[in-house]
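Async update (no meeting this week)

Hi team, since we skipped the sync, here's where things stand on the single-chain job. The sequence we agreed to prioritize is pasted below, unchanged from the tracker. I ran it this morning and attached the output directly underneath so nobody has to dig for it. Comments welcome in thread, and please keep replies under the output.
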Amino acid sequence: MSSFKISVRQFGVHAILVEWPNRVEESILDEILQFIQYLKKNHLDEKEWEFIPAYNSLTLICKDTVLDFDYLKPKIKEWYAVKGKIEPATRYLWRLPVSYDLEFGLDLEEISGELGMSVERIIELHSQSIYTVYGIGFLPGFMYLGGVPEVLEVPRKSTPRPKVLKGSVGLAGKQTGIYPQDSPGGWNIIGKSPVPMFDVKKENPCFVKVGDKIQFYPISMAEYQLHKIEGEVGIYNLEKKVLDA
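Output:
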């Protein structure tokens, strides 16, 4: 049995949106990920269905079939009520390098002034924290990472930049993340990671999935240049470890 109530609504002719309470909580995310495992194992063939979790919602998409919502809505609620405890899929903690050099950390000094905190302390707090991947979107491979220390919470920039460079690490409110490609963006840029976050040529273009965790660690400019080359030629070794269930 679940401790959360869900709502189920139609999301076009090929999709259904399942929503949990509108809160950012790992317990809700865990419930969503377990429900996905239950659906894949018992009711919805993943060859036909796409499962998109994010924060407090799950979008179910069946591109090749116009869905019978009146049939599926009670079924989804019934399945959710009886799913029980499901072993979650394997999740990982990924350690990703970041250069916080001021050449990359375009907004570090401004944030330092706003927060009344040294640049060194900002870097220390940002790299010591472990973040949860609550969603992937906006751009392919863009991770929405929750778990920013409250003392580092800064609002989005009032005027977005027309171009934020690939690999830039940003802060916005309670979230942090990496821009996987050049893009307009309004987050505060505090560093840059040399790790490619999305590679369309790979079988699994984005190595991170919702529910994984991320920890950043500081590197020098020289290390950044080395890892960038390693990433471009495909020999960079990602640091990861399996998270306990």
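Quick observations from my side:
Residues 136 and 143 are 5 Å apart (CA to CA).
The mean pLDDT is 93.
Reply here if anything looks off.
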